[in-house]
Specification:
By secondary structure, this protein is mostly beta strands. The protein contains 2 helices and 21 strands.
Length: about 325
């Protein structure tokens, strides 16, 4: 299967961050959360550290970087977030959303008893207050940047293997909270069967942005091709990840106004398709709407590098409505 990006997308033809840019041990830099905070761009990125050249991974932490233009990044001299104890083995895949002057970080957590999602808050990116952690199995959580009908709102991807036939058939759900700690009012937003270019699973990607027409939201889409062999470090990598885009209702984000029926971003450049840990993987984690109408979409490529694509907000809305 050969997927291509939409013509409205313009990719920066180099990664914005790789392991070579990190001043401490690093190997795979990807799946970053990006936001604008106090006048600057801020990025929290996943670092699977080890030895890239020897294709060895030793662990995971989350690094921090700042930028004045969203393209060139200054990386802090040490990781900013690492969560481990006798139950938790690692935290990863941060997503950033600013609400009322506070930056909230959604993250995934691997534990001895299942995958969990967590939410923490920070104002200095040194101290993090963990607000909540889900039951297993749930991940890929992203927050809306404001309360909706008086409630904090998030998209998420629970992983119901038993009740979905014992295979990957994972969908996008929405939950709400009065206080960021206790979550409920859960509703299905989008099923994998609603996405023509997915046959395995879908899930949230970057936190949504607000437009006059609705909440513009990216999602990740997975196509499973059992004929694929070695595509990266592993002996077999059978999945192709692309990014999709949808428009959700402003007052009830569980209502989908429209979905673009083709991938928004697909793997095409050498560092997306030919090189890295798992090739043919595109995973957006940050989306910023500029005053000019330009949308910056930050995405991990090949589970190896962090990249940037741009598009006009009206073009993205048009894809969803047309």
């Amino acid at each position: 299967m050969n997927f291509v990006s939409s013509s409205v997308i313009k990719k920066l033809e180099r990664p914005v961050l790789t392991y070579r840019d990190i001043p401490y041990n690093a190997a795979l830099i990807f799946n970053a959360g990006v936001a604008k905070y106090n006048g600057r761009y801020v990025m929290m990125f996943r670092n699977d550290y080890g030895d890239y050249e020897k294709q060895r991974l030793d662990g995971t932490n989350i690094g921090l970087a700042f930028s004045d233009d969203g393209i060139n990044w200054d990386v802090s001299d040490k990781p900013c977030f690492k969560l481990e104890d006798e139950e938790i083995s690692r935290a990863y895949d941060p997503r950033l959303t600013v609400i009322d002057g506070v930056c909230y970080v959604c993250f995934a957590i691997d534990t001895k008893h299942g995958l969990r999602g967590g939410i923490a808050s920070t104002t200095d990116f040194e101290n993090f207050d963990i607000k909540t952690m889900t039951l297993p199995d749930n991940r890929n959580m992203v927050l809306f940047p404001e309360k909706i009908n008086g409630l904090y709102t998030r998209l998420e991807r629970p992983m119901p293997v038993y009740s979905r036939g014992g295979i990957d058939r994972f969908d996008i759900w929405m939950s709400q909270s009065p206080d960021m700690r206790f979550w409920g009012n859960s509703r299905l937003v989008m099923g994998v069967e609603n996405v023509p270019f997915a046959n395995d699973k879908i899930g949230p990607a970057a936190p949504p942005i607000k437009t006059e027409k609705g909440w513009l939201t990216t999602f990740h889409s997975v196509y499973l091709d059992p004929e694929r062999g070695k595509h990266g470090w592993e002996d077999r990598w059978q999945k192709i990840y692309t990014a999709g885009i949808a428009l959700l209702d402003l007052d009830d984000p569980s209502k989908v106004i429209g979905i673009y029926d083709k991938p928004l971003i697909a793997a095409e450049l050498p560092f997306e398709k030919d090189e890295g840990f798992r090739t043919d993987v595109i995973f957006p984690g940050g989306m910023i709407l500029e005053d000019s109408g330009e949308v910056k979409i930050y995405y991990g490529a090949a589970d190896t590098v962090e990249c940037l694509a741009t598009a006009d907000v009206n073009d993205l809305i048009g894809l969803c409505l047309n």
